[in-house]
Amino acid sequence: MTKFEIRGVRADVLIGAEEREEILKGVDLTINSGETHAIMGPNGSGKSTLAYAIAGHPKYEITAGEVLLDGENVLEMSVDERARAGLFLAMQYPVEVPGVSMSNFLRSSVTAVRGEAPKLRAFSKELQQAMGGLAIDSSFAARGVNEGFSGGEKKRHEILQLELLKPKIAILDETDSGLDVDALKVVSAGINRARETNDVGVMLITHYTRILNYVRPDYVHVFAGGRIAESGGPELADRLESEGYERFVKAGAGQ
Amino acid sequence: MASPNLGIREHSHGAGEIPISRLDVHGSFDPQSFPVPTGREEEWRFTPLRRLRGLHDGRTIADGVVGVEIQAPGEVRVERVDRDDPRVGASFLPNDRVSALAWDSFPQFGQANVITVPKGTEAGAPVFVKATGTTHGDAYGHLVVRAEPQSSATVVLEYAGSAVYADNVEFVVEDGASLTVVSLQDWDRDAVHVSHQFATVGRDARFRSFVVTLGGDLVRLSPSVRYVGTGGDAELHGLYYTGKGQHHEHRSLIDHNESNTRSRVEYKGALSGEDAHAVWIGDVIIGEGTSGTDSYEHNRNLVLTDGTRVDSVPNLEIFTGEVEGAGHASASGRLDDIHLFYLQSRGIPADEARRLVIRGFFQELINRIEVAELRERIMAEVEEKLASHE
Fold this sequence. Notes:
The complex is a heterodimer. Chain A is of the alpha/beta class. Chain A is 37% helix and 30% strand. A 6-stranded mixed sheet of chain A has the order 6-9-10-3-11-12, sandwiched between helices. A 4-stranded antiparallel sheet of chain A has the order 2-1-4-5. In chain B, α2 crosses α3 and α3 runs antiparallel to α4 (372-389). Chain B has helices spanning 97-105, 337-344, 350-366, 372-389, and strands at 65-71, 77-81, 112-117, 127-135, 138-147, 152-161, 164-173, 178-185, 192-201, 206-213, 218-227, 233-242, 247-256, 262-271, 277-286, 293-303, 309-318, 323-333. Chain B is mostly beta strands. Chain B: This is Fe-S cluster assembly protein SufD.
């Protein structure tokens, strides 16, 4: 049983050497293993900033508050320590790393997170199976990390990593954006497998309710103006579907 | 100096004329046509002349020994011929003093090597040309590679040992032929090498060059491409790892003097250690009256330590409005934070992430070389240099 707590987090985006702007203005959220929390909100409300700031992206800086994973202060850990402690971020725009093959990258990553190198044969079988489950052609293993992948291919590979790394808490940042219906089903099935087999706690960041038809959330939070403006159950998503974000945009702008 | 040369006029822009481009001012087989460089000239200002050990002023004591061995499959012809052979010096004019001096001096060291891939022949295996310096002193060479119409071949030039060496290399890719060249500058640490590689690309012909410079004290390599028919395609790939105190200079020139020709230039290098100096000059001319040129050049430098120096200068001169595409880019910097962040966010520790990204930087280019054994060898040598850096 894992408890992931975000308490009073404020964060800045670093724009230039001198320039910064506060985006997160006090975020509180607790996620337990097995729970799926959808974070919804208008563009520019700070949803992605929350994801990147927690993962330790160099362009963001948390200025106040704390983030605890089973009581351990995540913010004192380096980026790689956070991942080894059981945090995972599926990025909205996964990074291309030219020349580093996907298979080499995945093996290094699995070795680091599990604390020992997997047996070569067992790992290649595991990898093949996981790729098959996400309808990823095996030729991708030899290609550079995300290099020249389409948007949909990148998203599938993020979920592939989710399944291989088996984190305690997964933050999925707009994993549904840019996917057609077929790809969305494949990716959602991967997320659901990870939920069932690993009891992972999920923070599912999305702009649209579409993915929530495939990945059912336990809780829905509306993000606006750099904080959580309203929380509820799945029915809140249905309300957003019909009403839109307008009333939250107005509220956010009024601050 | 009389010499056979086809289609190129000596001093093509004489007194009183305004040169079309400063990149194309003159050429001559006579070293006296070129004043001794002082280091203030545009084309010499990045080169530490002192370290050329006389290659530019022409002392030609000629006390060095560089042996050239050639290994070729049966269908490829290998000959040694005198300088007056009509195939020698037919495709180029020396465009600087060292090139002219090399032309002047190589007969003292023996003959020119001529490699011919006969018409319509597909070479079943790469041709290996290995130049090894065994006695450290100045030495000169000349090599001609001719890919006759509709033929295809891969030629690997390998420079090793210790020498002060200047050479001219002619690649003649005739109509519809395809020639891939890998030039590996794997010299001992004290070697000095100034090399000119002149490619002439025929109608619908394809030329691919991979220049890999790892060794030497000073290496200055000038690959140039000109087209003698429409539809020619040239790709120049380069890779260098410039370590402590080394000077690696690559100066490419693509002359799109025919219509519907394509070129790509991509040179990538890493620098580490005090006084490591890399220079990349990328000149592209798109000639008057041509149309349909598609050209792009790109230089990237990965700066791994303090105390290094990079000079990266793309020059693009366009004399026509009918261009399909023309662009250039140059970027020099440290490892990309975002690459490291991505790998670390998957649990990979910082130092290992760094190693993966640096290796990936080289691997990406090495992977394009089709000769598997060369890929492994080059990566192993890069590993060796990285190990001494880390």
